[in-house]
Amino acid sequence: MNKHVSPSMNRRAFVIGTAAVGAGLAIGLDIPFGGPAVVRAADGSPEINAWVVVRPDDTVVIRIARSEMGQGSLTGLAQLVAEELECDWTKVTTEYPTPGQSVARKRVWGDFSTGGSRGIRSSQDYVRKGGATARVMLIEAAANEWKVPASECTVANGVITHAPSGKTTTYGKVAEAAAKLTPPTEVKLKDPKDWKVIGKGVKRLDTADKTTGAMVYGIDLKLPGMLNAAIKDCAVFGGKLKSYDDAKIADMKGVKKVVKVGDSAVAVVADTWWHARSALDALPIVWDEGDNAKVSSESIAKWLAEGLDDSQPAYVGNKNGDAKAAIAGAAKKIEAVYSYPYQNHATMEPMNATALYTADKCEVWCGTQNGEAAFAAVLEASGLPAEKCDVHKVMLGGGFGRRGQTDYVRQAVMIAKQMPGTPIKLLWSREEDMAHGRYHPITQCKMTGAFDANNNLIALHYRLSGQSILFSLRPEALQNGMDPAAFQGVAQSGEAAFGYSVPNLLIEHAMRNPHVPPGFWRGVNVNHNAIYMECFMDELAQAAGEDPLEFRRKLMGNHPKHLAVLNAVAEKIGWTTPAPQGVYRGIAQVMGYGSYVAGAAEISVTDGNKIKLHRIVASTDPGYIVNPAQVERQIAGSFVYGLSALFYGGCTVKDGKIEQTNFDTYNSMRINEMPKVESVMVPSGGFWGGVGEPTIGVAAPAVLNAYFAATGKRIRSFPLRDQNITFA
């Protein structure tokens, strides 16, 4: 019966207050004023703690604060809790708490954010403790009933046994008593060698409902009396709405109201979304596009290129020795300039949110990667206090970082506020979604490597010019003006550290922020940094006359975990054995999100510009692996994303606007273009790394290095479509 609990759409079920917190979408809680401190779920079942509800039939409901958007976190997090709980996995279900409930309970569920491949790695400790705590309380309840020491009781698959007497009971039978107990202050977590559920490729909990169509996404949601809204924002970022003539569409079918949304957008509310969209297309609108309408891809590229000049200011993110002096006195130097474009998240489900506003309450139903950020947006847009607001999370039809932003949530509330008491579903068109993304940052990079007379690499200067995501989205996270995230994959230390030792090293970032807003795009800065560094490593190997693998190995003696994944992928691809006739190989490695990854590709090329991908291999060391089957899927999915970006992605700017408006101009890989994907997992333990994003970084450089091996040509700007390079 494994599944994720389907939401209830009856808005009358939502009752929120300071002492009673309710939800019909995810869970309902009843926190009484007096008597035993038993918190109950909507069906009356007792909550053992914030993470675990046990029903009388022994069903275990595990609360998941993070968001599920296809990456498998929902199942993985449930595995972590179930492992320590020692429950019957076949009786596990999951459900989402709401951020409003969490705030009312002093943030009992902790962080709701799901991004940066942190869903499991940053919450694994406290969710496992949640399961362990519930287990201790359930055993104690059974022991109290039997009047025996709890130390004499054991549990397996949700059945508690007192060995001396032979008595047994189940979690469902003692849950009520357990819920009244005081939780232990300390619990001991299992040794990884004793794991039974963690590390197993169990089936995902959300697959069945997705397969049958029972899963409810934001785009599917319906509420009684709901109306639909379509929106159009100024296509030039920073532009304003000047005027519109709503009289021209007042008599169009289904139209209920035309409303201004903020300073830059207008929305039409109608009985159906198509009626709203049709009327919006017919609405005469005048925009004030401002000076940003003069910006183009060419002007942005010129500005970024100026940032590559050493005379321009830059932040230093990684340094040792004196790279500039070593380069000046070197026997030989190699230089290359690469560039990487804007990328759109292009989630299959466009941005949407449903809002219901009254003077006493504001609720939003949406897919979000950060329930608390969405909650904050609702508070801000509604003007109501926290106890009168909530966000009810539904399944995400793709996120990739985009749904970590809350612009669409804020818009939905602003529209609903102009029609109090009526649920309003705001759904962006595909064109709106493409035009108003938060794009992978645009960058350029100039790299210089220097050799001594014996072809030893003695210096490396890596100068990045381009956007800072933190400058735009989280300026408080800047460090004396520097964006540390810009150095992902080439950082001096931390979760995305550089994997090579070079005697003289300088890695710096000339921050330049065009008007097109950047965002966290799956893999983020690791993506372009891995392309730049790993392709240039191949260029350096060629200049030194060495094999690309052996050249890297010489620089990785002080980076054993980087080297281990590189060796693993080299062995899997068969690097030291001849490739099939006409097939060429490329290799790459990087560290990102706390994990060490490497990739290798086998390709063939016809007519110089048609690439057939035969194989692509990834090795990964994330420390621990919760669900190996899901890790394999994440690797394959990340390669789809990374290769689509390499071949087809890239957004261009004309007259201040994004030119790509739909999938006809922003394509994605097809099944026949996808190579065979192979995975090698080498978890070394002792740390928790991410899985969903790191391997994206090695997909493109592995293929690009293989392309050079096949053709002798270096490609340094992307996407490949712009170089007239396609899939065979």
Summarize the structure.
By secondary structure, this protein is of the alpha+beta class.
Description:
The model is unreliable at 6-35 (pLDDT under 50). This protein starts with a strand and ends with a strand. It is built from 17 helices and 29 strands. The chain has a seven-stranded mixed sheet with strand order 11-12-9-19-16-17-18. A five-stranded mixed sheet has the order 1-5-4-3-2. Strands 14-22-21-20-15 form a five-stranded mixed sheet. By secondary structure, it is α+β, with helices and mostly antiparallel strands.
- Alpha-carbon distance between the two ends: 44 Å
Task: Figure out the total of helices.
Answer: 17
User: What is the arithmetic mean of pLDDT?
Assistant: 94
Q: What shape does the CA trace take?
A: globular
- Percent range of helical residues: 25-40%
**Taking Cα atoms only, what radius of gyration do you get, to the nearest Å?**
27 Å
| Beta strands, count | 29
How would a textbook summarize the main sheet?
A: 7 strands, mixed
Unreliable stretches covering 5 or more consecutive residues? 6-35
How do the helices and strands line up, and which of them pair or pack?
Blueprint: E1 3-4, E2 47-49, E3 52-54, E4 60-63, H1 73-85, E5 92-95, H2 99-104, H3 124-146, E6 153-156, E7 159-162, E8 167-170, H4 171-178, H5 207-212, E9 227-233, E10 240-244, E11 255-261, E12 265-270, H6 273-282, E13 285-288, H7 297-306, E14 315-320, H8 323-328, E15 332-340, E16 352-358, E17 361-366, H9 371-382, E18 389-393, H10 407-416, E19 424-427, H11 430-435, E20 443-451, E21 457-466, H12 469-473, E22 504-511, H13 525-544, H14 548-554, H15 560-573, E23 584-592, E24 595-606, E25 610-621, H16 628-647, E26 653-654, E27 657-658, E28 676-681, H17 696-711, E29 726-727
Parallel strand pairs: 1-5, 4-5, 9-19, 17-18, 21-22, 25-28, 25-29
Antiparallel strand pairs: 2-3, 3-4, 6-7, 7-8, 9-12, 10-13, 11-12, 14-22, 15-20, 16-17, 16-19, 20-21, 23-24, 24-25, 26-27
Helix pairs in contact: 1-3, 3-4, 9-10, 13-17, 16-17
